[in-house]
Amino acid sequence: MIRIGDDIMNKEEIIQNINNMFTNKEYMFDAYVLTKGEALLKKLILDEGNPTIDSGNFKKSIQNSIEELIIDKFTNENVDYSSAENIADNQKKFYIINQDSLYQPFSVVKETFEPIDRFKTQDIDKALGILFKYKRGDLCMWAYQHIYPTSIPSPKNKFWSIQKHNDIFIEMKEVIFPILKKIDILIIGDNIITSNISLMERSFKFQGFIKSKAEQSIQKIETLNLVSNIDKLTEYIGRSKLIYSKRMMRISSSKVLDKTSQELINSVESLPRWKGKFNIQDNKIVLSTYKEVESLIDLLDETYTRSDVTGHEYKTDVKKLAEPVA
User: Fold this and answer.
1) Pick from 66, 94, 112: which is nearest to 10 by CA?
2) What is the pLDDT along the chain (326 residues), one digit of tens a residue?
3) Are residues 184 and 215 in the same domain?
4) Which of 2, 127, 142, 274 has its CA 20 to 30 A from that of 120?
5) 307 in a domain, yes or no?
6) Which domain, by its residues, includes 240?
7) 228 in the same domain as 285
8) pTM of the full predicted structure?
9) Domains in the chain: how many in total?
């Protein structure tokens, strides 16, 4: 099993964990409903049919369908994965969010929750989403499918569900609880993997994670002793739009922060891209405008890269460290 501890997994580790889980059918599978408000899990009892004749097994049908979807969606070699710090690039990729003490939207799946209540029809209005649990030994994987209120047909939602009977369509009296062939989020260990950042913001308070990461970036800059008026950075992310915190969050894992303050000042004063860009006093950068704050973010995020072949400089929001030349 590939490690699934506190660290953020990479693409290869995610794919390997998925392959390890589905190497054969000798794993455990169950389904749960995650409730709104105080997050609780309720067990979704799925019909297993008649095992003696191996027919009508709805649970196995769901199990196989979600398994196929996980494999198709998350192990495709053409799919890109990126750390959550890079969400400001707004690319079509899977972002990996590490659950820690500050942000644990799915802590409920790590808790011991047996015995657990069954999900009943009267609980439908409280349902936030469905969690499909796959477990093999110590490896545990959860696939989350979000439930949108309008996906549950009922008169309350301004429309009715109908069924065909002898070519006549009649009203269905019972409320439908839909299970779709869809996954919004995959959870492996402490890692949340999703391309649906808007869902995370809307339903799982992801704004708090973004703000926290942006504040951590500012703390690192303060420790570096590079900027004289650090309050300008705090003011920058304190504005109403979340995009400013997303931009600041980009530098939280930057290798540039491993440099000393003097090394960075030397670069700013000598490189054509940065020369004259900042007001430097007593070997520190003094920030006067938000534009200067964004220039500092570009500097620390290595937004600009130079081609060894042409000598041209490119602005790159998305970067992947190249393998060293042998």
Assistant:
1) 94
2) 444 445 689 999 999 999 999 999 999 999 999 998 877 899 999 988 776 665 668 899 999 999 999 999 999 988 899 888 888 876 789 999 999 888 999 988 876 556 578 988 888 888 999 999 999 999 999 999 999 876 665 555 545 555 666 777 766 666 667 788 899 999 999 999 999 999 999 999 999 999 999 999 999 999 999 999 999 999 999 999 999 999 999 898 888 999 999 999 998 998 888 888 899 999 999 999 999 999 999 899 876 565 444 444 545 555 555 455 55
3) no
4) 142
5) yes
6) 209-315
7) yes
8) 0.83
9) 2
CB of 59 within 8 A of CB of 67?
A: no
Q: What is the 3-state secondary structure (H, E, C) of the chain?
A: CCCCCCCCCCHHHHHHHHHHHCCCCCCEEEEEEEECCCCCEEECCCCCCECCCCECCHHHHHHHHHHHHHHHHHCCCCCCEEEHHHHHHCCCCEEEEECECCECCCHHHHCCCCCCCECCHHHHHHEEEEEEEEEECCEEEEEEEECCHHHCCEHHHCECCEEEECCEEEECCCCCCCCCCCCCEEEECCEEEECCHHHHHHHCCHHHHHHHHHHHHHHHHHHHCCECCCHHHHHHHCCCCCHHHHHHHCCCCCHHHHCCHHHHHHHHHHCCCCCCCCEEECCEEECCCHHHHHHHHHHHCCCEEECCCCCCEEECCCCCCCCCCC
186 and 269 belong to one structural domain: no
Structure tokens at 221: 């800059």
Strand partners, 97: 192
20 and 163 in a common domain: yes
